[in-house]
Amino acid sequence: MVAAAVWLAWATVAARGQAARQQLPPLGIESLGPTESFAFYCAPCHGRNGRGDGTVAPALRTKPADLTTLAERSGGEYPRDRVRAYITGTGRQIEAHGAGDMPVWGPAFKALDASDTRAQVRIDGLVRYVESLQQGENGAALFRQHCASCHGTAGRGNGSMAPALRKVPPDLTQFAQRNGGVFPSERVRRIIDGREVSSHGDRSMPVWGDTFKRASPEASDDAASARIAALVRFLQSIQERPAE
């Protein structure tokens, strides 16, 4: 009787363990489609739209990057080779993630797919998919086109037109430092827009809210706001950080 009871208890525990193992989510997926691969492997951290707001993001030491702004933060060009190197784990010194919370997907995909060829196809698809997520309005390109002549290509106030202005353009990389280390995104947005507040005293700077609205085919406030938001994101990306 005792032996039977012990065996029954062991069998019950074993059955529960097997059931628990059967309920574990799969480690990989069969599909090589870029959308499916991103949703399964990347979206838990980066979010379905790549903005860094996935369900796992709050538990990470470093907030996942907004993958939709990689081109914007790279001078307007999508850094395809660097993104590929980061995914495969051969080039982790790019701006995308900072800390090494992200898995090294190169060897992981080779193990999960049991094929170098399948792993390469999956990585190629992810690189293309992240490229498709890039913002429609490119803040870096807009800055070069509309702002660099006064503020300089690096935003430090040394553009080609700066000597001709009555007031020296400010160093735009110092917004966060002048605001206690926090980038004042809403104040910067209002300065660029120019329709709500004065920007530079004598308003040498154009009222970009009106300019962008007139330049948009739709002639809408939404189109102008999208361009201004892209510029704000770009300026946030070039803020100078204090030395650690």
Average the pLDDT over all residues and give the rounded result.
81
CATH architecture of the largest domain: Orthogonal Bundle
> Which structural category do the helix and sheet elements fall into?
mainly alpha
Give the helix level as a range of percent. Answer: 40-55%
Helices, by number, come to 10
Ranges where pLDDT stays below 50 over 5 or more residues in a row are 1-14, 94-99
CATH class membership of the largest domain: Mainly Alpha
What is the β-strand count?
0
Q: SSE string, helix = H, strand = E?
A: HHHHHHHHHH
Large-scale geometry? elongated
Question: How many domain modules?
Answer: 2
Looking at the structure, the CATH topology of the largest domain is Cytochrome Bc1 Complex, Chain D, domain 2
Strand content: under 5%
Largest sheet: none
N- to C-terminal separation?
A: 70 Å
Topology:
Layout: H1 2-23, H2 34-46, H3 80-88, H4 105-113, H5 116-132, H6 139-146, H7 148-151, H8 185-193, H9 208-215, H10 221-237
Protein described:
By secondary structure, the protein is mainly α. The chain folds into two domains: 28-132, Cytochrome Bc1 Complex, Chain D, domain 2, CATH 1.10.760; 139-237. Helix content is 48%, strand content 0%. It has ten helices and no strands. Helix 2 (34-46) crosses helix 5 (116-132), helix 3 crosses helix 5 and helix 4 packs across helix 5 (116-132). The longest helix is centred in the N-terminal third of the chain and has 22 residues, at 2-23. It is elongated, with a radius of gyration of 25 Å.
